[in-house]
Amino acid sequence: MSRLSLDFSNLNPFVSEKDLEAIYPKVLSCHKMLENAQGPGSHFLGWKNPEISEKVLSEISEVAKSVRELCQVFIVIGIGGSYIGSQAGITFLKSSFPNQLYKKGLPEIYFSGHNISSDYHADLLELIDGRDVCLNVISKSGTTTEPAIAFRLFKELIERKYGSEKAKQRIIITTDGKQGPLSTLAKEQGYPSFVIPDDIGGRFSVLSPVGLLPMSVAGIDVAELISGASIGKKLYSKNSINDAYRYAGFRYLLYKQGMTTEILSTFQPAFQYFSEWWKQLVAESEGKDLKGIFPASVEFTKDLHSMGQWIQEGSRTIFETFLFLESSNRQLKIPAFQNDTDGLNYLAGKTLDQVNQKAFEATALAHKDGGVPNLLIKIKDRSPESLGQLIYFFESSIAMTGYLNEINPFDQPGVEMYKKNMFKLLNKPGY
User: Fold this and answer.
1) CA 316 to CA 191: how far, in whole Å?
2) What is the helix (H) or strand (E) element at residue 266, kind and residue range?
3) Architecture field, domain 46-220
4) Burial (CB count <10 Å: 0-12, 13-18, 19+), residue 131
5) 3-class SS at 375?
6) Is 376 helix (H, G, I), strand (E, B) or coil?
7) pLDDT tens for residues 267-284?
8) DSSP 8-state secondary structure symbol assigned to residue 153
9) What is the mean pLDDT of the chain?
10) 301 prior amide bond cis, ω within 30
11) At residue 144, does pLDDT exceed 90?
12) What is residue 71's predicted lDDT score, i.e. its pLDDT?
Protein backbone atom coordinates (compact mmCIF):
# COMPACT_ATOMS: atom_id res chain seq x y z
CA MET A 1 0.00 0.00 0.00
CA SER A 2 1.33 3.42 -0.99
CA ARG A 3 2.22 5.82 1.81
CA LEU A 4 2.42 8.80 -0.52
CA SER A 5 -0.07 10.65 -2.68
CA LEU A 6 0.42 13.25 -5.40
CA ASP A 7 -2.03 16.12 -5.94
CA PHE A 8 -1.51 18.33 -8.99
CA SER A 9 -4.82 20.24 -8.96
CA ASN A 10 -3.01 23.54 -8.33
CA LEU A 11 -1.14 23.24 -11.64
CA ASN A 12 -4.25 24.34 -13.49
CA PRO A 13 -4.22 26.52 -15.64
CA PHE A 14 -0.45 26.39 -16.06
CA VAL A 15 -0.19 22.76 -17.26
CA SER A 16 -2.73 19.98 -17.54
CA GLU A 17 -3.03 16.21 -17.78
CA LYS A 18 -3.54 16.66 -21.53
CA ASP A 19 -0.11 18.31 -21.71
CA LEU A 20 1.31 15.34 -19.81
CA GLU A 21 -0.38 12.89 -22.16
CA ALA A 22 1.21 14.69 -25.11
CA ILE A 23 4.71 13.86 -23.86
CA TYR A 24 3.86 10.32 -22.79
CA PRO A 25 5.75 8.75 -25.75
CA LYS A 26 8.90 10.54 -24.56
CA VAL A 27 8.28 9.44 -20.96
CA LEU A 28 7.84 5.85 -22.16
CA SER A 29 11.09 6.03 -24.12
CA CYS A 30 12.95 7.32 -21.05
CA HIS A 31 11.31 4.61 -18.93
CA LYS A 32 12.68 1.94 -21.27
CA MET A 33 16.16 3.44 -21.04
CA LEU A 34 15.98 3.33 -17.23
CA GLU A 35 14.57 -0.18 -17.04
CA ASN A 36 16.88 -1.64 -19.67
CA ALA A 37 20.00 0.30 -18.62
CA GLN A 38 20.34 1.81 -22.09
CA GLY A 39 20.61 5.52 -21.25
CA PRO A 40 23.50 7.78 -20.21
CA GLY A 41 25.05 6.79 -16.89
CA SER A 42 23.40 3.35 -16.98
CA HIS A 43 26.25 1.88 -14.92
CA PHE A 44 24.90 3.89 -11.95
CA LEU A 45 21.44 2.36 -11.70
CA GLY A 46 22.04 0.25 -8.60
CA TRP A 47 19.62 2.45 -6.62
CA LYS A 48 16.75 1.01 -8.68
CA ASN A 49 17.08 -2.23 -6.71
CA PRO A 50 16.93 -1.08 -3.07
CA GLU A 51 16.76 -4.56 -1.56
CA ILE A 52 19.63 -5.33 0.82
CA SER A 53 20.76 -8.87 1.59
CA GLU A 54 19.98 -10.29 5.00
CA LYS A 55 23.72 -10.77 5.49
CA VAL A 56 24.50 -7.08 5.02
CA LEU A 57 21.54 -5.99 7.16
CA SER A 58 22.72 -8.34 9.91
CA GLU A 59 26.26 -6.94 9.73
CA ILE A 60 24.93 -3.38 9.92
CA SER A 61 22.81 -4.30 12.93
CA GLU A 62 25.73 -5.97 14.72
CA VAL A 63 28.13 -3.07 14.17
CA ALA A 64 25.44 -0.54 15.18
CA LYS A 65 24.81 -2.51 18.38
CA SER A 66 28.53 -2.51 19.16
CA VAL A 67 28.70 1.28 18.64
CA ARG A 68 25.75 1.82 20.97
CA GLU A 69 27.43 -0.31 23.65
CA LEU A 70 30.86 1.29 23.31
CA CYS A 71 30.19 4.94 22.64
CA GLN A 72 28.45 8.03 23.91
CA VAL A 73 29.24 9.89 20.69
CA PHE A 74 29.21 8.68 17.09
CA ILE A 75 30.96 10.85 14.49
CA VAL A 76 29.89 10.42 10.86
CA ILE A 77 32.54 11.74 8.48
CA GLY A 78 31.53 12.44 4.90
CA ILE A 79 30.48 15.08 2.41
CA GLY A 80 27.52 15.37 0.04
CA GLY A 81 25.67 12.12 -0.37
CA SER A 82 28.01 10.46 2.10
CA TYR A 83 26.33 12.15 5.05
CA ILE A 84 23.27 14.26 4.20
CA GLY A 85 20.95 11.28 3.58
CA SER A 86 21.58 9.76 7.02
CA GLN A 87 21.23 13.17 8.68
CA ALA A 88 17.90 13.61 6.87
CA GLY A 89 16.71 10.19 7.99
CA ILE A 90 17.72 10.63 11.63
CA THR A 91 16.05 14.04 11.95
CA PHE A 92 12.87 12.93 10.18
CA LEU A 93 12.47 9.64 12.04
CA LYS A 94 13.78 10.42 15.53
CA SER A 95 13.25 13.98 16.70
CA SER A 96 13.62 17.64 15.81
CA PHE A 97 16.28 17.63 18.54
CA PRO A 98 17.80 14.14 18.13
CA ASN A 99 20.83 14.65 20.35
CA GLN A 100 18.73 16.00 23.21
CA LEU A 101 16.01 13.37 23.20
CA TYR A 102 17.92 10.14 22.67
CA LYS A 103 16.98 7.47 25.14
CA LYS A 104 19.64 5.90 27.30
CA GLY A 105 21.79 3.56 25.25
CA LEU A 106 21.78 5.64 22.09
CA PRO A 107 24.81 7.77 21.32
CA GLU A 108 24.66 11.35 20.19
CA ILE A 109 25.45 11.61 16.48
CA TYR A 110 27.45 14.45 14.96
CA PHE A 111 28.60 15.05 11.41
CA SER A 112 32.04 16.08 10.23
CA GLY A 113 34.05 16.25 7.02
CA HIS A 114 31.44 18.29 5.12
CA ASN A 115 33.40 21.51 5.59
CA ILE A 116 36.97 22.68 6.25
CA SER A 117 36.14 25.06 9.07
CA SER A 118 38.61 25.25 11.95
CA ASP A 119 35.96 26.62 14.29
CA TYR A 120 33.43 23.90 13.48
CA HIS A 121 35.87 21.07 14.09
CA ALA A 122 37.45 22.70 17.14
CA ASP A 123 33.97 23.18 18.62
CA LEU A 124 33.11 19.56 17.92
CA LEU A 125 36.35 18.29 19.45
CA GLU A 126 35.65 20.41 22.53
CA LEU A 127 32.06 19.13 22.73
CA ILE A 128 33.08 15.47 22.77
CA ASP A 129 36.09 15.89 25.05
CA GLY A 130 36.11 13.28 27.82
CA ARG A 131 33.42 11.14 26.20
CA ASP A 132 33.64 7.74 24.55
CA VAL A 133 33.79 8.12 20.78
CA CYS A 134 33.34 5.97 17.68
CA LEU A 135 33.52 7.15 14.10
CA ASN A 136 32.39 6.13 10.64
CA VAL A 137 34.34 7.60 7.72
CA ILE A 138 32.44 7.42 4.44
CA SER A 139 34.22 8.05 1.15
CA LYS A 140 34.14 5.99 -2.04
CA SER A 141 37.50 7.24 -3.27
CA GLY A 142 39.02 7.65 0.16
CA THR A 143 40.81 10.77 -1.07
CA THR A 144 38.10 13.45 -1.00
CA THR A 145 39.79 16.36 0.75
CA GLU A 146 37.19 17.44 3.29
CA PRO A 147 36.43 14.03 4.86
CA ALA A 148 40.08 12.97 4.58
CA ILE A 149 41.15 15.94 6.71
CA ALA A 150 38.43 15.25 9.28
CA PHE A 151 39.38 11.58 9.40
CA ARG A 152 42.95 12.54 10.27
CA LEU A 153 41.71 14.68 13.15
CA PHE A 154 39.38 12.11 14.69
CA LYS A 155 41.52 9.05 13.96
CA GLU A 156 44.39 10.73 15.77
CA LEU A 157 42.08 11.53 18.71
CA ILE A 158 40.78 7.97 19.01
CA GLU A 159 44.21 6.32 18.70
CA ARG A 160 45.70 8.70 21.26
CA LYS A 161 42.82 8.08 23.67
CA TYR A 162 42.41 4.31 23.35
CA GLY A 163 45.60 3.04 21.73
CA SER A 164 45.87 1.64 18.21
CA GLU A 165 44.51 -1.82 19.12
CA LYS A 166 41.37 -0.70 20.95
CA ALA A 167 40.84 1.97 18.31
CA LYS A 168 40.19 -0.78 15.77
CA GLN A 169 36.74 -1.48 17.18
CA ARG A 170 35.85 2.22 17.23
CA ILE A 171 36.70 3.13 13.64
CA ILE A 172 34.33 1.96 10.90
CA ILE A 173 35.03 2.48 7.23
CA THR A 174 32.51 2.69 4.39
CA THR A 175 34.24 2.82 1.03
CA ASP A 176 34.98 1.10 -2.26
CA GLY A 177 35.14 -2.65 -1.81
CA LYS A 178 38.15 -3.26 -4.03
CA GLN A 179 40.51 -0.31 -4.12
CA GLY A 180 41.42 3.03 -2.61
CA PRO A 181 43.32 4.08 0.53
CA LEU A 182 40.41 3.52 2.92
CA SER A 183 39.80 0.03 1.56
CA THR A 184 43.49 -0.77 1.99
CA LEU A 185 43.55 0.72 5.50
CA ALA A 186 40.50 -1.28 6.60
CA LYS A 187 42.14 -4.51 5.46
CA GLU A 188 45.50 -3.67 7.05
CA GLN A 189 44.05 -2.59 10.41
CA GLY A 190 41.09 -4.93 10.61
CA TYR A 191 38.56 -2.11 10.93
CA PRO A 192 34.89 -3.05 10.49
CA SER A 193 34.02 -2.00 6.96
CA PHE A 194 31.13 -1.73 4.54
CA VAL A 195 31.11 -1.50 0.78
CA ILE A 196 29.67 1.33 -1.28
CA PRO A 197 28.29 -0.46 -4.35
CA ASP A 198 30.06 0.38 -7.60
CA ASP A 199 26.76 1.05 -9.36
CA ILE A 200 25.42 3.65 -6.90
CA GLY A 201 26.47 7.31 -6.94
CA GLY A 202 26.79 9.36 -3.76
CA ARG A 203 23.49 11.25 -3.91
CA PHE A 204 21.63 7.98 -4.56
CA SER A 205 23.41 6.07 -1.78
CA VAL A 206 21.24 6.76 1.28
CA LEU A 207 19.60 3.31 1.07
CA SER A 208 23.00 1.58 0.99
CA PRO A 209 25.36 1.08 3.97
CA VAL A 210 26.31 4.75 3.50
CA GLY A 211 23.06 5.88 5.10
CA LEU A 212 21.85 2.69 6.75
CA LEU A 213 24.66 2.29 9.31
CA PRO A 214 24.35 5.77 10.91
CA MET A 215 20.58 5.43 10.96
CA SER A 216 20.84 2.00 12.54
CA VAL A 217 23.13 3.44 15.23
CA ALA A 218 20.36 5.98 15.90
CA GLY A 219 17.97 3.11 16.63
CA ILE A 220 16.09 3.24 13.31
CA ASP A 221 14.70 0.02 11.85
CA VAL A 222 16.51 0.16 8.52
CA ALA A 223 14.81 -3.02 7.28
CA GLU A 224 11.53 -1.06 7.36
CA LEU A 225 13.22 1.75 5.45
CA ILE A 226 14.22 -0.72 2.74
CA SER A 227 10.70 -2.17 2.78
CA GLY A 228 9.29 1.29 2.01
CA ALA A 229 11.76 1.74 -0.84
CA SER A 230 10.70 -1.66 -2.22
CA ILE A 231 7.10 -0.44 -2.23
CA GLY A 232 8.34 2.55 -4.20
CA LYS A 233 10.07 0.29 -6.69
CA LYS A 234 6.84 -1.64 -7.34
CA LEU A 235 4.85 1.57 -7.79
CA TYR A 236 7.35 3.71 -9.72
CA SER A 237 8.89 1.21 -12.11
CA LYS A 238 5.65 0.56 -13.94
CA ASN A 239 5.38 1.05 -17.67
CA SER A 240 2.84 3.80 -17.19
CA ILE A 241 2.40 7.35 -15.95
CA ASN A 242 2.86 6.48 -12.30
CA ASP A 243 3.09 9.27 -9.71
CA ALA A 244 6.89 9.53 -9.89
CA TYR A 245 6.79 9.88 -13.67
CA ARG A 246 3.79 12.21 -13.43
CA TYR A 247 5.76 14.48 -11.08
CA ALA A 248 8.79 14.31 -13.40
CA GLY A 249 6.66 15.08 -16.44
CA PHE A 250 5.02 18.10 -14.86
CA ARG A 251 8.42 19.41 -13.75
CA TYR A 252 9.69 19.05 -17.31
CA LEU A 253 6.65 20.86 -18.76
CA LEU A 254 6.93 23.73 -16.28
CA TYR A 255 10.65 24.04 -16.99
CA LYS A 256 9.92 24.29 -20.70
CA GLN A 257 7.58 27.20 -19.89
CA GLY A 258 10.45 29.11 -18.28
CA MET A 259 9.87 28.09 -14.67
CA THR A 260 13.48 27.35 -13.93
CA THR A 261 13.39 27.26 -10.12
CA GLU A 262 11.58 24.69 -8.00
CA ILE A 263 10.93 25.48 -4.35
CA LEU A 264 10.43 22.53 -2.00
CA SER A 265 8.12 23.87 0.70
CA THR A 266 7.53 22.06 3.98
CA PHE A 267 5.53 22.73 7.12
CA GLN A 268 7.51 20.55 9.52
CA PRO A 269 11.06 21.05 10.87
CA ALA A 270 11.40 17.27 10.52
CA PHE A 271 11.98 17.88 6.80
CA GLN A 272 14.90 20.27 7.32
CA TYR A 273 17.69 17.95 6.28
CA PHE A 274 15.53 15.98 3.89
CA SER A 275 15.24 19.23 1.94
CA GLU A 276 19.03 19.45 1.87
CA TRP A 277 19.24 15.88 0.54
CA TRP A 278 16.64 16.72 -2.11
CA LYS A 279 18.57 19.82 -3.21
CA GLN A 280 21.72 17.81 -3.78
CA LEU A 281 19.79 15.11 -5.64
CA VAL A 282 18.23 17.67 -7.99
CA ALA A 283 21.21 19.98 -8.44
CA GLU A 284 23.88 17.36 -9.13
CA SER A 285 21.57 15.30 -11.32
CA GLU A 286 20.03 18.04 -13.47
CA GLY A 287 22.43 20.99 -13.45
CA LYS A 288 24.62 20.38 -16.49
CA ASP A 289 24.89 21.14 -20.20
CA LEU A 290 23.53 24.63 -19.38
CA LYS A 291 20.22 23.01 -18.39
CA GLY A 292 18.41 22.10 -15.23
CA ILE A 293 15.90 23.26 -12.64
CA PHE A 294 17.44 25.20 -9.77
CA PRO A 295 16.34 23.62 -6.45
CA ALA A 296 15.52 25.78 -3.44
CA SER A 297 13.76 25.00 -0.18
CA VAL A 298 11.78 26.84 2.49
CA GLU A 299 10.31 25.85 5.84
CA PHE A 300 6.86 27.25 6.55
CA THR A 301 5.33 28.93 8.34
CA LYS A 302 8.67 30.46 9.45
CA ASP A 303 9.72 31.42 5.94
CA LEU A 304 6.33 32.91 5.10
CA HIS A 305 7.59 35.84 7.13
CA SER A 306 10.69 36.20 4.96
CA MET A 307 10.79 34.30 1.68
CA GLY A 308 6.99 34.35 1.46
CA GLN A 309 6.97 37.86 0.05
CA TRP A 310 9.31 36.95 -2.81
CA ILE A 311 7.40 33.76 -3.62
CA GLN A 312 4.10 35.65 -3.66
CA GLU A 313 5.12 38.66 -5.72
CA GLY A 314 8.64 38.18 -7.07
CA SER A 315 9.87 36.99 -10.46
CA ARG A 316 7.44 34.47 -12.02
CA THR A 317 10.10 31.89 -12.90
CA ILE A 318 9.24 29.51 -10.06
CA PHE A 319 7.02 26.60 -9.24
CA GLU A 320 6.51 24.92 -5.90
CA THR A 321 6.35 21.40 -4.53
CA PHE A 322 4.76 21.07 -1.11
CA LEU A 323 5.71 18.20 1.19
CA PHE A 324 3.01 17.77 3.78
CA LEU A 325 2.92 15.30 6.65
CA GLU A 326 -0.54 13.82 7.21
CA SER A 327 0.08 12.55 10.73
CA SER A 328 2.46 13.79 13.42
CA ASN A 329 3.94 11.51 16.05
CA ARG A 330 2.25 13.47 18.83
CA GLN A 331 -0.57 15.96 19.19
CA LEU A 332 -0.74 19.19 21.17
CA LYS A 333 -3.97 21.14 21.73
CA ILE A 334 -4.20 24.89 22.06
CA PRO A 335 -5.45 25.83 25.57
CA ALA A 336 -8.30 28.25 26.31
CA PHE A 337 -7.53 31.38 28.36
CA GLN A 338 -10.24 33.01 30.47
CA ASN A 339 -8.86 36.42 29.61
CA ASP A 340 -8.65 36.18 25.81
CA THR A 341 -6.16 39.03 25.49
CA ASP A 342 -4.43 37.55 22.41
CA GLY A 343 -7.75 36.77 20.69
CA LEU A 344 -6.88 33.12 20.16
CA ASN A 345 -9.75 31.47 22.02
CA TYR A 346 -11.37 30.79 18.66
CA LEU A 347 -8.59 28.22 18.22
CA ALA A 348 -8.91 26.69 21.70
CA GLY A 349 -9.22 22.92 21.61
CA LYS A 350 -7.76 22.62 18.12
CA THR A 351 -4.50 20.78 17.62
CA LEU A 352 -1.41 22.49 16.24
CA ASP A 353 -1.65 20.13 13.27
CA GLN A 354 -5.17 21.36 12.49
CA VAL A 355 -3.95 24.94 12.38
CA ASN A 356 -0.87 23.93 10.40
CA GLN A 357 -3.12 22.21 7.84
CA LYS A 358 -5.07 25.42 7.26
CA ALA A 359 -1.84 27.39 7.03
CA PHE A 360 -0.73 25.05 4.26
CA GLU A 361 -4.04 25.25 2.39
CA ALA A 362 -4.04 29.04 2.61
CA THR A 363 -0.44 29.23 1.39
CA ALA A 364 -0.94 26.90 -1.56
CA LEU A 365 -4.00 28.88 -2.69
CA ALA A 366 -2.30 32.25 -2.24
CA HIS A 367 0.77 31.17 -4.22
CA LYS A 368 -1.33 29.72 -7.02
CA ASP A 369 -3.35 32.94 -7.21
CA GLY A 370 -0.03 34.80 -7.28
CA GLY A 371 1.05 32.92 -10.39
CA VAL A 372 3.05 30.09 -8.80
CA PRO A 373 1.90 26.62 -9.90
CA ASN A 374 2.31 24.06 -7.16
CA LEU A 375 2.22 20.33 -6.58
CA LEU A 376 1.47 18.52 -3.34
CA ILE A 377 3.08 15.33 -2.06
CA LYS A 378 1.40 13.99 1.07
CA ILE A 379 3.38 11.65 3.34
CA LYS A 380 1.35 9.40 5.60
CA ASP A 381 3.53 9.55 8.70
CA ARG A 382 7.06 9.75 10.13
CA SER A 383 7.76 6.04 9.75
CA PRO A 384 10.82 4.40 8.15
CA GLU A 385 8.54 2.81 5.55
CA SER A 386 7.10 6.19 4.50
CA LEU A 387 10.56 7.74 4.30
CA GLY A 388 11.90 4.82 2.25
CA GLN A 389 9.11 5.23 -0.29
CA LEU A 390 9.62 9.01 -0.40
CA ILE A 391 13.34 8.60 -1.10
CA TYR A 392 12.66 6.16 -3.93
CA PHE A 393 9.95 8.44 -5.32
CA PHE A 394 12.36 11.34 -5.71
CA GLU A 395 15.23 9.21 -7.00
CA SER A 396 12.99 7.80 -9.72
CA SER A 397 11.46 11.19 -10.55
CA ILE A 398 14.76 13.03 -10.84
CA ALA A 399 16.28 10.28 -12.98
CA MET A 400 13.27 10.56 -15.30
CA THR A 401 13.46 14.38 -15.49
CA GLY A 402 17.15 14.10 -16.38
CA TYR A 403 16.42 11.81 -19.29
CA LEU A 404 13.51 14.00 -20.43
CA ASN A 405 15.98 16.90 -20.56
CA GLU A 406 18.41 14.69 -22.50
CA ILE A 407 21.20 14.82 -19.95
CA ASN A 408 23.07 12.24 -17.89
CA PRO A 409 21.51 12.50 -14.41
CA PHE A 410 24.13 10.25 -12.81
CA ASP A 411 27.40 12.13 -13.26
CA GLN A 412 28.68 15.42 -11.85
CA PRO A 413 31.65 16.61 -13.93
CA GLY A 414 31.30 20.19 -12.72
CA VAL A 415 32.04 19.20 -9.13
CA GLU A 416 35.59 18.25 -10.13
CA MET A 417 36.52 21.75 -11.32
CA TYR A 418 36.80 23.36 -7.88
CA LYS A 419 38.89 20.40 -6.70
CA LYS A 420 41.43 20.84 -9.50
CA ASN A 421 41.69 24.56 -8.82
CA MET A 422 42.06 24.00 -5.07
CA PHE A 423 44.77 21.38 -5.58
CA LYS A 424 46.71 23.79 -7.82
CA LEU A 425 46.42 26.58 -5.26
CA LEU A 426 47.56 24.25 -2.47
CA ASN A 427 50.51 23.02 -4.58
CA LYS A 428 49.39 19.39 -4.53
CA PRO A 429 51.93 17.25 -6.42
CA GLY A 430 50.79 16.62 -9.97
CA TYR A 431 48.63 19.76 -10.16
Assistant:
1) 53
2) strand 261-266
3) 3-Layer(aba) Sandwich (3.40)
4) exposed
5) strand
6) strand
7) 999 999 999 999 999 999
8) H
9) 93
10) yes
11) no
12) 93
User: What interhelical angle do 209-217 and 222-236 show, nearest 10?
Assistant: 140
The secondary element (H helix, E strand) that includes residue 387 is: helix 384-404
User: Does residue 247 surpass a pLDDT of 90?
Assistant: yes
Active-site annotation, residues = 284, 305, 419
Q: How far apart are the C-alpha atoms of 204 and 47, rounded to whole Å?
A: 6
User: Are the CB atoms for 83 and 150 separated by under 8 Å?
Assistant: no
CA dist 324 and 296 (Å) reads 17
- Residues in a beta bridge with 153: none
Instruction: Give φ, ψ of 50 to 5 degrees.
Output: -75, -10
How far is it, in rounded angstroms, from Cα 100 to Cα 106? 11
CB 214 within 8 A of CB 71: no
pLDDT digits (tens, 9 = 90+) for 297-344: 999 999 999 999 999 999 999 999 999 999 999 999 999 999 999 998
Cα(74)–Cα(218) distance, rounded to whole angstroms? 9
Using the CB atoms, write b or e for 235-268: b if 16+ within 10 Å: bbbeeebbbbbbbbbbbbbbbeeebeebbbbbbb
181/373 Cα distance (integer angstroms): 48
Sign of CA dihedral 215, 285, 6, 302: positive
What Å distances lie between residue 222 and 95, 189, 244, CA to CA?
16, 28, 23
Residues forming CATH 3.40.50.10490 domain(s) in the chain: 4-39+225-404, 46-220
pLDDT in tens, 168-180: 999 999 998 888 8
- H-state helical runs in 94-208: 98-101, 118-127, 145-167, 181-189
The dihedral region occupied by 406, where left means phi > 0, alpha psi between -120 and 50, and beta the remainder, is left
Please check whether residue 135 is in contact with residue 77, taking contact to mean a CB–CB distance below 8 angstroms.
yes
Q: 71-101 b/e with 16+ CB inside 10 Å = b?
A: bebbbbbbbbbbbbbbbbbbbbbbbeebbee
For residue 82, the model assigns a pLDDT of 87
CA contacts within 13 A on the Cβ side of 47: 30
Single-letter code of the amino acid located at 82: S
In whole angstroms, what is the distance from residue 114 CA to residue 79 CA? 4
Strand order through the sheet with 4-7: 4-7, 374-379, 318-325, 261-266, 294-299
DSSP state of 81: G
User: Parallel, antiparallel, or unpaired: how do β-strands 73-77 and 108-112 relate?
Assistant: parallel
Contacts of 299-305 with C-beta under 8 Å, sequence gap 24+, read 299/265, 299/266, 299/267, 299/269, 299/271, 299/272, 299/275, 300/265, 300/266, 300/267, 300/359, 300/360, 300/363, 301/267, 301/356, 301/359, 301/363, 304/359, 304/363
- Domain spanning 4-39+225-404, CATH class: alpha beta
